[in-house]
Amino acid sequence: MPKTNVSMEDSVRVRNEVVFLAQARKALGAVDGHAALCPRAYAWDDTNLETQFIVEEFKNGEHILAEEFSVLSPADQTHIFTQIAKFVKALQTIKLPEGVVYGGLTFDGEGVISSTKCPIPCGGPFKTERSKHLNGWKGTPKLRERLEVFFANGRDKVLQTIGEDRPTLTHADLGMGNLLFDRETKTLTAVIDFDFSHAGSPVSEYLFSFYDVDYLLTSSVEPNGPMRGFLLDGFPEGDEHKGIDSENVGELQKARRFDTAFASQGVPRPSTIGYAAAASDIWWF
Fold it and tell me: Which parts of the sequence belong to the Aminoglycoside phosphotransferase domain (predicted)?
């Protein structure tokens, strides 16, 4: 049963997840019968926001969290990353129903799939709220300068730097905590937690997911050291550790294995998506 009042669009969450699971299973069914990675939705109801629910298939498997993952052998890490890459490739390859655009997914009484509000709220209006995290300009260096540049250039001109791309399925929370594995073989057995799933662009997954393997695409304001540049322009060859402190070499190697695995499966990556840099700057603005 989805929790309410957790900064989600409660009115669309259930149907969005039901549609996404069905479309994801369809996409994965074309990849060596991998449809079983996504749970089946057996029943659902969204007539009352306080009691809405989805009955989903229970999936077997265990988590391999970030701490444990970091000490796995390079071969095991690559094996895991390759399986994740195949999952993402399937989501990004399937052709969505006619008329589906960016945002959430829903369906009518005849089962016809269409677009709706994104389950992740984007834009207001919002009720006034007091928060200790709000501190005017003080906590964000150069924010005023960025705002002035944004308004000077014009919103439409800025958005023109981002090319249009076809909508693709975006899980939007692909962290190790939402993946289940056979611990002995390191085989991916299930992907769970589709709360944030929606139709996005090929770059969208990199703005939400992969945060625990240092492959989240950040903005130019907070580039995560040299990592943003590596994601956009390519990783150093071989064992080169350009710009990386010795204590972070392991993170670089992990992210490089991730990049190599995705490249091997032909998955679009930030370095192959021409508008990725502009999209990340606007997203994290």
Answer: 22-205
